[in-house]
Amino acid sequence: MRxxxxxxxxxxxxxxxxxxxxxxxxxxxxxxxxxxGWNPFAAPKPEFEExxxxxxxxxxxxxxxxWATGYPDxxxxxxxxxxxxxxxxxxxxIQVASGKKIDKAFSPRLYVPQGSTKQVGVxxxxxxxxxxxxxxxxxxxRPTDTRCGNPARP
Length: 154
Fold this sequence. Notes:
The protein is of the alpha+beta class. The chain folds into 2 domains: 1-42; 49-141, Immunoglobulin-like, CATH 2.60.40. Helix content is 23%, strand content 39%. The protein has 2 helices and 7 strands. Strands 1-7-4-5 form a 4-stranded antiparallel sheet, with no helix packed on it. A 3-stranded antiparallel sheet has the order 2-3-6, with no helix packed on it. A hairpin with a 4-residue loop joins strand 4 (87-96) and strand 5. The longest helix is centred in the N-terminal third of the chain and has 32 residues, at 6-37. It starts with 5 loop residues before the first helix and ends in a 13-residue tail after the last strand.
């Protein structure tokens, strides 16, 4: 048997220490990468996305606007949908006779189920002021589908 010198023992101890540190760094890097890949708080990607209505879809929606008797400052909208899924409207843009544009949000949003009619009102638009209006509405679609769908049904 060969006797080892103190210098050789010290060198091999340092090398072993460096190997352990390198292994620990590699292990920690791998765990860090795995932790970023899995997140318990990350929401799953939704199956449906809300998208604005196309002109073909608007042709399946009927919108009426007017004022209720006795309420000359409350503009009412009635939205009837024949879309294959529900739709939701966020608000309206109203063009008034003076040329000014008024944007009004619906709070809460107007939700119109498939094949039904819903109503919503906005304050501050006096009878006789409105020249034109547009509604900001959308429906839910799967990323691979072109038709509106119902996210509540599988």
